[in-house]
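Example record

The entry below shows one chain as it appears in the dataset: sequence first, then structure tokens.
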Amino acid sequence: MAPEGDRLFSWAAAALALLLAVWVARFLLDQCWKYVELKPIPGLSPWYPLLGNALLFERDGEGKTQAGRQAAFFQQMINSMEPFRNVPLMQLWIGPHPIVLLYHPETVEVVLRSSKHLAKPFVYTFLHPWLGTGLLTSTGGKWRSRRKMLTPTFHFTILEDFLEVMNEQANVLVQKLEKHVDKEPFDCTLYITLCALDVICETAMGKNIGAQHNKDSEYVQAVYRMSVLIQQRQKSPWLWPDLLYLMFQDGKEHYRSLKILHSFTDNVIAEKAQELKNQEQHRSNAVSNGEQSRHKVRRAFLDMLLNATDDDGKKLSYLDIREEVDTFMFEGHDTSASAMKWCIYLLASHPEAQRKVHHELDEVFGDSDRNITMDDLKQLRYLDCAVKEALRLFPSVPFFGRTLSEECYIRGFRIPKGTDVIIGSFMLHRDHVVFPEPEEFRPERFFPENAAGRHPYAYVPFSAGPRNCIGQRFAKMEEMAILATILRHFSIESTQRRDQLCPVGELILRPNKGIWIQLKRRSTSCS
């Protein structure tokens, strides 16, 4: 029996070896086919099967810290694109995966305006464990249905309710900043981030987590750690297989962070569901007793999700609700916080622009310390232009992507169906033809008379086309309200040079060196 067993084992081993050899051969042939198909498109060299352009990028980074490596990688990406500035597009291989990069308005328009190219690229799958296939990551019929269902939650009247939360949290932020008035420079990034996190927690989930009073919150730390881990995995092909990933330290941290994030969301959803049930019971009792409730209930996205129905009248499942809440949490605070940090730096570095903002605030508010209203925001036109210009120079999402659902031609180059396309908004917004002297901070670029006739796809901080950011009005309102509150109370100064900021292009564009500012109290009585 032993010889027979040995023969069976040998046959099995040979069969497995043959299958593996066939798989590797097909994989390599597929890579070579893609390489040949995309070869006419300008790109980096050298290219190697399996590795792609990976050997071109150093991974040590400044001081060999993780933040230093991330900043170095982003800078290398930008530097590698610069020689291709005058060609319409370029290709880049992340390991065995090809990507076509677009960074001119005419080429970006071909993809973003289309109602067909709506799927997200392969690298977005690494968001699935956290966000599932919610509005950010879903595609096809699910995305269309979900988008239609969620659009009413961003109605003007609902956003007006959210402004109350933004005012409250902005006032807490001002109280926290008071201790720095007339003191040494300090890094304001954590203050801004925690404020944005408090805003999104209360508006998305109806829960005040008091992040500004508890900077060591386990949930806060998990959010940021998860963002770093996902971006690190996206650019590291050896971390792509799930089984291998769990063997690395990053994979173990990912699992721990995921558990914290989902446990938090699970608890909040359960609390909110019970709260809605109690409210309904209270209303029912009030009606039966002939009473009328005068208590105003503050709405949150979660309230609306729990009551939302699809085209067939079906309510969202528990997992559907969780993935949308997690998506709102991720997209709704980190992007806004990033935009505010960069705008604070730019205004602090350009005193004349800041003086114009202060003058505008004084005209609207005078000596009043009242909360900001929607009508006030409409009058803050220069601040609005300053926020837009900050988003031009430092878009919160420096790269975002689509997968082509069909073959298309861009400026004469054929791009096959299924190719992943990345829009480099960081480079797109620096097109010197559209934005002369692109590195200069000039809010006046967005005055109506100066923006008239500008290519509609030259400036896409919130993406564009059918799959643009559903929460952009929420984000702009939050950024304007919080920045206006800060600048009503303080004058801001900064001695940081632009080249000292070291932007880190993880999922969100952040300053690796922080934003170091000094505060002086304004002379108005509202301070």
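Notes for this example: The longest strand covers residues 89-94. The chain has a mean pLDDT of 86.
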